[in-house]
Amino acid sequence: MLFVLELLLNKLKIELLSALPGIEAQYLMAPVSRPRIDLASLEVGQYRPSAVLILFCSDDKNNLFIPLIERLPYLGAHSAQISFPGGKYEDGDENLQNTAIRECFEEIGLREEIEIIGKLTSLYIPVSGFLVEPYIGFCKIINPPMVPHEREVKNVLELSLNNLLDEKLIEHGTVEVDGNKIKTPYFLVEGHKVWGATAMILSELKTILARS
């Protein structure tokens, strides 16, 4: 394993054993109109269990990045948005960690190369009813070959870790969904606005990485 990645993972493993920054960190990047949801108030049947994978990868120049996917348009709440590889729990998964790994394999072709080290705070998405478990993992090979799912993924973006930690990546404006304009902060990645649940999860991750 590359030294820089090893240092990062050791730091993350320690931080993930401590109290997570949670909802306060998530809501630094929440849409202005988004209500705060008390997860403890959600009952089984009120949400759809799901999981995403935050995957740390390294290229041959020791640069660290997180793959994000640009979804193809479809009839659903998250059509054409930028997200982590992930999706809903299926009966054969047995647990949500397996959901995250299975979805990563289906969407970008990585599975055996992945090792999970922990997870962040769960996040409920009101528009789709998903309760998301964000798992953190790393890729055990350099420059992992990524194969986008031809019917689900339009493109794979690489979010540089250095860029994530740079405040200049954050902008404030609007996104348009079904003709409605939503006021929100977002990360600008390769010309794409990364907002909503993905931005909120990244915000908690960024807060953890910034802790001394």
How does the SSE layout of this entry go?
Elements: H1 3-16, H2 22-26, E1 48-58, E2 64-71, E3 82-83, E4 86-88, H3 96-108, E5 114-119, E6 123-125, E7 130-139, E8 153-160, H4 161-164, E9 170-177, E10 180-189, E11 192-194, H5 196-210
The CATH homologous superfamily corresponds to Nucleoside Triphosphate Pyrophosphohydrolase
Structural class by SSE content: alpha+beta
Q: Look at the structure and give the mean pLDDT.
A: 92
| Highest-level CATH class | Alpha Beta
Précis, in short:
The protein is of the alpha+beta class. It is built from five helices and eleven strands.
Describe what this molecule looks like in 3D.
- A hairpin with a 4-residue loop joins strand 6 and strand 7.
- The chain has a single domain, classed as Alpha-Beta Complex (Nucleoside Triphosphate Pyrophosphohydrolase).
- The longest helix has 15 residues.
- The chain starts with a helix and ends with a helix.
- The protein is built from five helices and eleven strands; from the N terminus they run ααββββαββββαβββα.
- The protein is an alpha+beta fold.
- Strands 1, 2, 3, 4, 5, 6, 7 and 8 form an eight-stranded mixed sheet that branches. Strands 9-10-11 form a three-stranded antiparallel sheet.
